[in-house]
Amino acid sequence: MSSPTSRGGSLRHILVTGAAGAIGSAIARELRALYPSARLALLDRDAASMNALAATLGNASTHGVDLRDLAALPPLVEALNQTAPVDGLVNCAGIMRVLGVQSWDWDDAAGLMTIDLLAPLRLQDLVVGNMIAAKQGLILNIASMAGKVPLKGCAYYGASKAGLAMASEIARAELAPHGISVITVYPGPVHSPLEQGARHDYGGGGLFGRFAPTGDPAELARRITGAIAKNDPRVIYPRLYNVGWTAPNVARWIALSYGPPPVA
Q: Is the dihedral of CA 251, 252, 257, 260 positive or negative?
C-alpha cells in the first residue's frame, strides 16, 4: 500500500477538468489540501466561471476549453508543461443527457461521447509520457455507476462511462510499475446540476428518485483523497451502489426491470 508521499506525493502540476462543476470543484479543494504546493490548472468551458475558485485555492490557473475540440488539447498540455510538467490529471468533466435511443441527434450524441470518453483518454495520452519519465504521477478518471449498470435513456452516456472505466482499470495495471497511480471513480447520483438535470429528464425518477441515495460532492471528494492516500484502485459512492460492482447481474436486472424510462 502506497502513501501520498511515496506515490504521487510530490506532484507539481495537476490538471482538473470540469473544475467549475460541483464534483470537480470539490476535488480541486481536496487536492489543494493534499498537495499544498502544487500548481492547479482548472479547466472548463468558461474560464471566468472558475475565477473565484482559483483565487480561493491559490497557485491556480484557469483555462476555458471545449473538450469536444480534441485538436485543442495538445497545445493546451504543451502550454501547461512550460510551467511544470503535468504530473496529475483529474478527468472530471462530463455531460449527461437522458434520451431514448430513437430521440437522439447524432451530432449531439457524438459530442457527448467526445467529452465523456475521447477527451479524457486523449488527455491521459498527452500526460502519461512525462509521468513515466518522472516515475511518478496520478490519474483520476471519474467514470460512473451508469457505466456498470445499464440505465434506460443512457445509451451514449453509459457507453462512454463504461469505456472510460475499462480503459482506466487497464491503465492502472499497466502504469503501476512506472510509479503512476490510476484511480477509477464510480459515482452514483451526487447532488449537482448534472444530477438535477438527469432527475428532471426522468420525470423525477419515480420510486428510484424518491428512495435511491444521492451523495454529497464534498464527501465524494474526501473519499477520493482517501483513496489517493491508500492507493486504492477505485472509489464507489454512495455506498449502496457497491452492488453494481459486487453483484452486477442483479443490479442490471433491477435497473432494466424497474428503472424509470426517460420522459423524452
A: positive
Catalytic residue among 35, 157, 186, 237: 157
Burial class (CB in 10 A: 0-12, 13-18, 19+), 25: buried
pTM, two decimals, is 0.91
CA distance 21 to 24: 5
DSSP 58: S
Asked whether the beta carbons of 114 and 168 are under 8 A apart, the reply is no
Q: Which fold has domain 13-258?
A: Rossmann fold (3.40.50)
Where exactly are the structural domains of the chain?
13-258
pLDDT digits (tens, 9 = 90+) for 58-101: 999 999 999 999 999 999 999 999 999 999 999 999 999 999 99
The rounded radius of gyration (Å) of the Cα atoms in the chain is 18
157 is catalytic: yes
